[in-house]
Automatic annotation (TrEMBL):
InterPro entries: BMP_lipoprotein (IPR050957), Peripla_BP_I (IPR028082), PnrA-like (IPR003760). This is BMP family protein. The lineage of its organism: Bacteria, Bacillati, Actinomycetota, Actinomycetes, Pseudonocardiales. It comes from the Bacteria. Keywords: Cell membrane, Lipoprotein, Membrane, Signal. It is found in: Cell membrane. Belongs to the BMP lipoprotein family.
Length: 373
């Protein structure tokens, strides 16, 4: 028991552990201490501005996909990227035999990442899609060496080369909506966020989640923990650590936990199920992920980061020779992010969430992408 307590304490202190807000007891009409604001009234609703490119013929392409840690089966954004490739095979005539998937190893060297990309170049794959910001340095090197090969990179816009297309998302906007959902569903006026690695991309999830929660309940308290510090990517594939840290948040009174932790989310869900509380998934509709069937009853929604849409659209635009048709950012306006309703657990609050969505799309609410100090 002492060892378990020490482990729990040590893991919670890794990276960042803090809380925001001070719940006040006795808010009228709620019985939870949360003083909830009414959803915004937005005239005209939220009209998406997506204008999808017609399906092109991709039968002549060879597409390489370099996954991040976890690869297919992570139940998160790698699976979503894979779904985009599968859709291209199904809808664009891309031969399955003309695709290849490779997967990163935890904490591998830049040389190893570059070798993986070079392998795809050497074998004639074009375009090549790197899934995850950790490929940025290796991709810049390999894309410079291979100017006649087209590349895309998910979650990074730092590589400024004519043959590299960034596929980036407004994660903070989707996270705002699930933060609002958490604040509408909490019974304790205390919720939690578990990030995989404490670095700017995952902090976008945190920032939007907290802002959305506080838009609904200004006095809500949000516990924040990261599994590993910046540079240590094992936080995206450590369910045991995710379970321990989440248990700490639940023991502290949080009753809705949102994770942006990749494969570590399995441990988050297990801890929430053991406590009989609620969880929010990320990237994919995790209620529908087969690996999560045993815990799906606690998943009330997921923040949808449509990596599948971005990968499909990129392959389609590549086949059409029109990469300029891609959006600069996959945001709410183009359905690049959103929230899941599978399971019906937030059916009673979707009108409120859609009102916040409309306010964001219309510019009435600006969602911050970095956490407040």
């Amino acid at each position: 028991m002492l060892a378990a307590a020490v482990l729990t304490s040590a893991l919670v202190m890794v990276g960042c552990a803090r809380d925001t807000g001070t719940p006040q007891p006795g808010a009228a009409g709620t019985g939870t201490g949360c003083e909830r604001n009414a959803a915004p009234a937005v005239a005209g609703g939220a009209a998406n501005t997506a204008a999808p490119l017609p399906n092109a013929d991709a039968s002549g392409l060879k597409v390489g996909l370099a996954f991040d840690i976890g690869g297919r089966g992570d139940g998160s954004f790698n699976d979503s990227a894979g779904a985009g490739l599968d859709r291209a095979v199904s809808e664009l005539g891309l031969p399955k035999a003309s695709t290849k998937e490779l997967t990163a190893a935890p904490n591998e060297s830049e040389d190893a990442a570059a070798t993986r990309l070079r392998q795809l170049v050497t074998e004639g794959y074009n375009p090549i899609i790197a899934v995850g910001f950790k490929y940025a340095t290796a991709l810049e090197t390999v894309a410079t060496e291979s100017p006649n090969t087209q590349f895309a990179i998910v979650d990074d816009s730092s590589v400024d080369l004519p043959n590299v297309t960034p596929l980036v998302f407004a994660e903070e906007q989707g996270s705002f909506l699930v933060g609002a959902a958490a604040a509408l569903k909490t019974q304790s006026c205390k919720i939690g966020f578990v990030g995989g690695v404490e670095q700017p991309l995952i902090q976008k999830f945190e920032a939007g989640y907290i802002q959305g929660a506080k838009a609904v309940a200004p006095n809500i308290q949000v516990d924040v923990d990261y599994l590993t510090p910046a540079g240590d990517f094992t936080g995206f594939n450590d369910p045991a650590k995710g379970q321990v840290v989440t248990t700490g948040q639940l023991d502290g009174g949080a009753d809705v936990i949102y994770h942006a932790a990749g494969g570590s989310g399995q441990g988050v869900f297990q801890a929430v199920k053991a406590a009989g509380k609620s969880a929010i998934g990320v990237d994919s509709d995790q209620y529908n992920i087969p690996a999560y069937t045993g815990v799906r009853d606690v998943i009330i929604t997921s923040m949808l980061k449509r990596v599948d849409v971005a990968v499909f659209d990129y392959i389609n635009a590549s086949a059409a020779g029109n990469l300029q048709s891609l959006p600069t950012v996959f945001d709410l306006k183009v359905d690049g992010v959103g929230y899941a309703t599978t399971g019906g657990k937030i059916a009673d609050i979707t009108a409120d969430l859609d009102a916040y969505k409309a306010a964001i799309i219309n510019g009435d609410i600006t969602v911050q992408s970095t956490p407040s100090s």
